[in-house]
Write a structure and sequence with these properties.
mainly alpha, 0% strand, 184 residues
């Protein structure tokens, strides 16, 4: 898996990209939280759940179905809270965005160099998938393992493959937005 740092950076960057500078903090917080949530499945290791089990690490919690189910009530609550009645009509777009934020976790994990793959299609399939290109170094699980030379290697890998392209994309988007607003 990429580190939780990268999952959070991708979600925050996507929020800025989609909503611009005016995105409510609650939307940023929801996107970041949902993008990191699938890794709560690591608690299964302490409970004796085998890695490759459907509810093991990178299993059901990393699926597209789980992203759709979990993001739905979050989107509905945010839409009601931040936009009143008008938001209630717009919640499907917010749900789509928050779904994508949570689904990004499993998709990013599929680009890592280790593990057993991602159960993206659970429950219709227990098969675990990897992307054909896997340039992101897999992050060690656990804080003590992450705070090591291997963790530094992971962060360097993520900075090159995830953070830098995201920063370039955001810079272009901001430039486009500012140019568009000047032209108006």
């Amino acid at each position: 898996m990429p580190s939780l740092i990268s999952h959070a950076i991708v979600a925050a960057g996507a929020t800025r990209l989609v909503f611009g500078a005016g995105a409510p903090r609650a939307v940023y917080a929801a996107a970041v939280a949902l993008s990191c949530l699938p890794d709560a499945d690591v608690i299964g290791f302490r409970l004796g759940v085998p890695y490759a089990a459907p509810w093991g690490h990178r299993g059901a919690s990393h699926s597209l179905v789980m992203a759709a189910i979990v993001s739905l009530p979050v989107a509905a609550a945010l839409a009601r809270r931040h936009r009143g009645a008008a938001g209630a009509r717009r919640w499907p777009a917010l749900w789509g965005f928050l779904f994508a934020a949570m689904a990004s976790h499993g998709i990013l994990d599929a680009f890592t160099s280790g593990g057993h793959g991602i159960a993206l299609l659970w429950p219709s399939s227990a098969e675990r998938f990897f992307a054909p290109w896997r340039p992101i170094a897999v992050s060690p699980i656990g804080l003590s393992r992450f705070l090591s030379a291997r963790g530094v290697h992971v962060l360097a890998s993520e900075a090159t493959v995830v953070w830098a392209p995201l920063a370039v994309t955001l810079a272009f988007a901001e430039r486009f937005r500012s140019r568009r607003s000047r032209d108006r």
